[in-house]
């Protein structure tokens, strides 16, 4: 951290302005304030700028900076004069500064709200998006200091700088005078400026991940001199996968005359490699990683995969070691996967990278996999690629990332990459936590509109040492919000793979109508029942009987697919015996050919003990070379895939978080194969076969299998993508698994159709936004974090057209009578003590009190039941029309943002948790679906002959509450309970509002990487 030394500096060094950013080409830079300590850096930076760039900056030849210039550009008060620098390797690559000016254009102080801004970018770094990133940050700084408008004067020939300003998306004015282009623009974010910022963010972060997943050259650092150990194993994995780029083995303990290791060029240091290195796989003990990072940074390495353990998962010292690692890597513009990572895989023909601890390269396919846990990553790879047992069929992987501690690259970054990756059709993610829920839901909504995103969320615990803001929302609420964003949310990795197999190779269903056919009546009825339970609309099963031939299946499936009343087909099949029994291959071909005749509808198979059928079904969609011979190493039958023969036992324990018993057994079995020996070598520090402690210091280690059994053949380039008209039909061993996957596909297809028209946020003429802001400001002057009184609550809600029925205190019977006279009979008498509030079932409410006599009698009854008035806290309220009691809530969660919730009041919401949730701002479509999303919604629509209530008025109330918390983030909590929805209109009978300074919004400021 820099510290200013000038006594004239008016403010302390603003360390919160420091940030790491991802640039357009995927590299990173550090943005920080310029201080008096930067004089030499500034002079060195300026000397490397071309004469042309200097001319564009100063409008005249300016070969060098004078001492006065250096003083001016390094001495800032951080209020009226601010300078920021973008740095790589500690050296300046670009600068920006603003100077506050008055109406006459001369230097000024507040309350002047305009400033001149100017940039200078080193020529070698122009075109990387440095100026655009600096503009975002200097604009945020200016807004913080009360500046609302920037002015810039640019020479007409400086088209690059003009484009930076014009493309930013701010509201601006352009003029030309005295041979200079003058640009003026407001700094208040607009929808366009946010859209521009997020588009740049997506391109930059996707590019940063692409540089990791598609490198032109790879160096494995820590390659042992003898077989065994992490480094030697990973080197073999990269080589055996057929990596198309340049591969290097690095260990400073190599003899000077050693030229190759396992046929790979050997080097003592990355610095000795002739040519660029895009990716370094670091397999050395943690204490030696800093030295390796320095060498990689100085050589220009673009990214690191750090396999070593001994970081945040090991305690406070490791946590600080991890933070130092991230800071050091970002100093050189590098991104990190890990530490404690399992590795990365890219099956694309032009890459074929297996920089992981998996000894076999997965079959190429269209599924992108992300797992924070190595054990879960192994289980996912295994389930996707084995034959026999569980979900069968072969569906390949496009890319795989297992991020370990995810100290830098996270699921959000990889999601940015997969969004427009043409090689990925379906995304499967196992997340132990969501570090930035606001950003994740935004990215998920955008990704879901283009391709399915299926997520399992683990225990919710953040990876060790990862700084994430904890959400206060219940797990069910988080799940509901993910679904609103288009995420297919499942509970186990079995369901994750089930859904992924269906979505990867079958079209989305147009609706919930399901045809069921097969040769088992009982299996068909079981499937029918599961469809009903999942909310689908199945037709009665068609029983083809056990005598059905392959031709019978073909005809029945063809008819079902051709039926306009069918959106999907589930085929059930059991083995048959005897003369004329249908063969597996014959049946598989019959189903495949029938499905290809009507390619727009999904087909699933539920099979019982028909491993051959599943194999036959998968054969049609395989990406292996077409031919009659089985793939080498497969033997034509089941071959379970074990990507790692050794894994730390602690990793296997994480698999329990989202696994079923069979999955737990699988993960534990994998963990049992862990061998203690084998650690990455660096300078001869550890050799294969040394102590388990040495192995654990490095992290996950792999011993190449003694008898390799490749489960996938080498794939020729022409067979990377399945035949255009071939469709892999997923087969499931249980009806409930097939139907659950189909139900998720139906819901996702419905969401995708609705997402095309998300609705709008209505405008209401009677909303007084300014009046509400003034009221909130006055109330917050009393203190921070307060629940405002009843009168202030009514006034604030009234500014947004929400009328709350007045409740008058009744500390005595006479006071109750006076209140009733003021309100008008009939009235209600309520006890508002905390233990009786909203508990009509306890008898603390008396309704339909038509006159004074009834009111006094009710008052006496409440005193007899519950005690004196000071304990009851009775109130009198005007009687509302009868209807359905509901509850409306809004809360601003520091991690997820503002959320509106709705449910029926009482046991439905309190005991059963029957609440629905939507992110703010709520659109008219959101409000409509919110009301209908709860399980008890039929009570609002005339259930069992009751009168339907006024749901449009209820939806309007939800929209007004959403507008309130969206317009005023100081309103951190709102509860309306009960809200009585009658046949006409709604009545808000109780309301509480809590005000506090709004939590920081990290989605509206400039682009930054998570801070360490």
Quick structural gist:
The protein is α/β, with parallel strands linked by helices and 1012 residues long.
Bin the helical content. Answer: 25-40%
Name the average pLDDT: 83
- Figure out the total of helices: 30
Determine Rg (CA atoms, Å).
33 Å
User: In percent, how much strand structure appears in the residues?
Assistant: 15-25%
Shape by Cα distribution: flat
Main beta-sheet strand count, sense and barrel state: 8 strands, mixed
How many distinct beta strands? 39
Please give the order of strands in the largest beta sheet: 1-2-3-4-5-6-8-7
End-to-end distance, in Å? 12 Å
Extract low-pLDDT stretches. 1-9, 387-393, 620-725
Structural class: alpha/beta
Keywords:
39 strands; 30 helices; alpha/beta; eight-stranded mixed sheet; 1012 residues
What does this protein look like?
The chain is α/β, with parallel strands linked by helices. It is built from 30 helices and 39 strands. The chain has an 8-stranded mixed β-sheet, sandwiched between helices. Helix 17 (584-597) links the parallel strand 26 and strand 27. Helix 10 (374-385) packs across helix 14 and helix 10 (374-385) packs across helix 20. The chain is flat. The two termini are 12 Å apart. The model is unreliable at 1-9, 387-393 and 620-725 (pLDDT under 50).
Summarize the helices and strands and which ones pair or pack:
Elements: E1 19-22, E2 28-33, H1 39-47, H2 51-58, H3 67-74, E3 81-88, E4 91-101, E5 114-121, H4 130-144, E6 149-154, H5 159-166, E7 172-177, E8 180-186, H6 191-213, E9 217-221, H7 230-240, E10 246-250, E11 260-261, E12 264-267, E13 279-282, H8 289-299, E14 303-306, H9 316-331, E15 335-337, E16 343-346, E17 353-356, E18 364-371, H10 374-385, E19 397-402, H11 411-419, E20 426-431, H12 437-448, E21 453-457, H13 475-484, E22 488-490, H14 493-505, E23 513-518, H15 521-533, E24 537-538, E25 542-543, H16 550-562, E26 568-573, H17 584-597, E27 603-607, H18 611-619, H19 649-654, H20 661-672, H21 692-698, E28 731-732, H22 735-755, H23 769-780, E29 786-787, H24 790-799, E30 807-809, H25 813-823, E31 827-831, E32 845-849, H26 852-866, H27 869-872, E33 874-878, E34 883-893, E35 897-904, H28 907-910, E36 915-919, H29 924-933, H30 951-967, E37 971-982, E38 986-988, E39 991-995
Parallel strand pairs: 5-6, 9-10, 9-13, 10-12, 13-14, 14-15, 18-19, 18-20, 20-21, 21-22, 23-24, 23-25, 23-26, 26-27, 27-28
Antiparallel strand pairs: 1-2, 2-3, 3-4, 4-5, 6-8, 7-8, 11-12, 16-17, 16-19, 29-39, 30-33, 31-32, 31-33, 34-35, 34-37, 35-36, 37-38, 37-39
Helix pairs in contact: 6-11, 8-9, 10-14, 10-20, 11-12, 14-22, 15-22, 16-17, 17-18, 23-24, 25-26, 29-30
């Amino acid at each position: 951290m820099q510290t200013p030394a000038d006594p004239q500096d008016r403010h302390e060094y603003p360390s919160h302005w420091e940030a790491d950013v991802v640039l357009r080409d995927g590299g990173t830079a550090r943005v920080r304030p310029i201080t008096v300590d930067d004089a030499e850096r500034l002079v060195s930076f300026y000397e490397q700028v071309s004469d042309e760039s200097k001319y564009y900056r100063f409008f005249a030849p300016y070969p060098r900076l004078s001492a006065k210039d250096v003083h001016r550009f390094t001495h800032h008060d951080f209020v009226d004069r601010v300078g920021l620098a973008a740095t790589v390797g500690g050296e300046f690559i670009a600068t920006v500064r603003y100077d506050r000016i008055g109406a006459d254009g001369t230097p000024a102080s507040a309350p002047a709200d305009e400033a001149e801004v100017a940039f200078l970018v080193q020529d070698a770094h122009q075109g990387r998006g440095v100026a655009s990133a600096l503009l975002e940050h200097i604009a945020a700084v200016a807004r913080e200091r009360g500046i609302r408008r920037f002015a810039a004067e640019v020479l007409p020939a400086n088209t690059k700088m003009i484009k930076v300003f014009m493309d930013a998306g701010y509201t601006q004015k352009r003029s030309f005078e005295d041979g200079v282009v003058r640009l003026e623009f407001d700094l208040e974010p607009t929808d366009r400026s946010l859209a521009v910022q997020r588009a740049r963010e997506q391109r930059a972060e996707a590019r940063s991940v692409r540089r990791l997943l598609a490198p032109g050259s790879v160096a494995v650092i820590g390659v042992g001199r003898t077989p065994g150990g992490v480094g030697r194993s990973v080197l073999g994995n990269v080589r055996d996968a057929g990596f198309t780029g340049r591969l290097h083995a690095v260990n400073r303990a190599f003899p000077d005359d050693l030229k190759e290791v396992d046929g790979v060029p050997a080097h003592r240091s990355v610095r000795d490699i002739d040519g660029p290195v895009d990716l370094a796989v670091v397999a050395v003990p943690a204490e030696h990683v800093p030295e390796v990072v320095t060498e990689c940074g100085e050589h220009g390495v673009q990214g690191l995969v750090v396999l070593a353990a001994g970081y945040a998962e090991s305690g406070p010292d490791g946590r600080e070691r991890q933070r130092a690692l991230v800071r050091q890597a970002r100093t050189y513009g590098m991104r990190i996967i890990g530490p404690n990572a399992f590795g990365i895989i890219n099956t694309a023909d032009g890459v074929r990278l297996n920089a992981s601890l998996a000894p076999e390269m997965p079959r190429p396919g269209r599924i992108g996999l992300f797992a924070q846990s190595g054990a879960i990553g192994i289980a996912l790879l295994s389930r996707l690629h084995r034959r026999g047992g569980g979900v069968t069929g072969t569906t390949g992987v496009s890319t795989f990332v297992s991020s370990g501690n995810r100290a830098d690259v996270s699921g959000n970054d990889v999601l940015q990459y997969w969004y427009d990756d043409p090689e990925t059709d379906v995304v499967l993610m196992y997340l132990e936590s969501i570090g930035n829920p606001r950003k994740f839901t935004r990215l998920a909504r955008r990704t879901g509109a283009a391709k399915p995103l299926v997520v399992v969320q683990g225990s919710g615990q953040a990876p060790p040492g990862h700084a994430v803001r904890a959400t206060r929302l219940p797990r069910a609420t988080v799940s509901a919000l993910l679904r609103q964003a288009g995420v297919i949310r499942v509970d186990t990795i079995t369901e994750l793979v089930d859904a992924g197999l269906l979505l990867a190779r079958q079209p989305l269903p147009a609706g919930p109508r399901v045809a069921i056919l097969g040769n088992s009546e009982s299996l068909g009825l079981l499937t029918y029942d599961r469809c009903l339970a999942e909310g689908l609309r199945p037709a009665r099963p068609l029983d083809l009987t056990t005598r059905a031939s392959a031709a019978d299946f073909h005809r029945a499936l063809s008819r079902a697919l051709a039926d306009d009343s069918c959106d999907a087909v589930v085929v059930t099949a059991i083995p048959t015996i005897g003369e004329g029994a249908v063969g597996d291959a014959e049946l598989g071909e019959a189903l495949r050919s029938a499905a290809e005749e009507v390619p727009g509808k999904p087909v699933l198979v539920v099979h019982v003990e028909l491993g051959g059928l599943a194999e036959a079904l998968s054969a049609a969609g395989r990406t292996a070379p077409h031919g009659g011979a089985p793939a080498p190493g497969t033997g034509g039958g089941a071959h379970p895939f074990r990507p790692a023969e050794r894994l730390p036992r602690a990793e296997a324990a994480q698999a329990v978080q989202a696994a079923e018993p069979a999955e737990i057994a699988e993960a534990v079995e994998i963990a049992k194969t862990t061998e203690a020996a084998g650690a990455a070598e660096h300078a001869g520090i550890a050799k294969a076969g040394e102590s388990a402690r040495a192995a654990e210091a490095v992290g996950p280690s792999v011993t190449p299998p003694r008898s390799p059994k490749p489960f996938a053949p080498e794939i020729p380039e022409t067979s990377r993508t399945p035949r255009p008209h071939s469709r892999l039909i997923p087969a499931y061993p249980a009806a409930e698994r097939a139907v659950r996957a189909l139900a998720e596909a139906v819901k996702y297809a419905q969401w995708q159709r609705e997402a095309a028209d998300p609705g709008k946020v209505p405008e209401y003429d009677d909303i007084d936004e300014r009046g509400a802001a003034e009221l909130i400001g006055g109330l917050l002057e009393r203190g921070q974090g307060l629940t405002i009184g009843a009168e202030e609550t009514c006034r604030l809600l009234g500014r947004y057209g929400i009328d709350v029925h007045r409740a008058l205190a009744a500390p005595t019977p006479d006071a109750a009578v006076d209140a009733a006279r003021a309100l008008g009979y009939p009235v209600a008498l309520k006890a508002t003590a905390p233990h009786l509030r909203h508990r009509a079932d306890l008898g603390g409410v008396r309704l339909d009190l038509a006159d004074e006599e009834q009111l006094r009698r009710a008052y006496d009854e409440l005193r007899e039941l519950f005690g004196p008035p000071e304990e009851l806290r009775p109130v009198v309220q005007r009687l509302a029309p009868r209807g359905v009691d509901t509850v409306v809530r809004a809360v601003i969660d520091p991690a997820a943002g503002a959320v509106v919730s709705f449910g029926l009041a009482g046991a439905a919401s309190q005991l059963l948790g029957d609440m629905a949730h939507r992110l703010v701002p709520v659109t008219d479509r959101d409000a409509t679906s919110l009301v209908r999303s709860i399980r008890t919604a039929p009570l609002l629509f005339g259930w069992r002959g009751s009168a339907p209530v006024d749901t449009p008025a209820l939806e309007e109330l939800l929209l007004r509450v959403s507008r309130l918390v969206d317009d005023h983030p100081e309103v951190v909590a709102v509860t309306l309970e009960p809200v009585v929805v009658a046949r006409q209109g709604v009545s808000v009978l109780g309301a509480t509002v809590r005000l506090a300074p709004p939590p920081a919004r990290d989605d509206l400021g400039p682009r930054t990487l998570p801070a360490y």
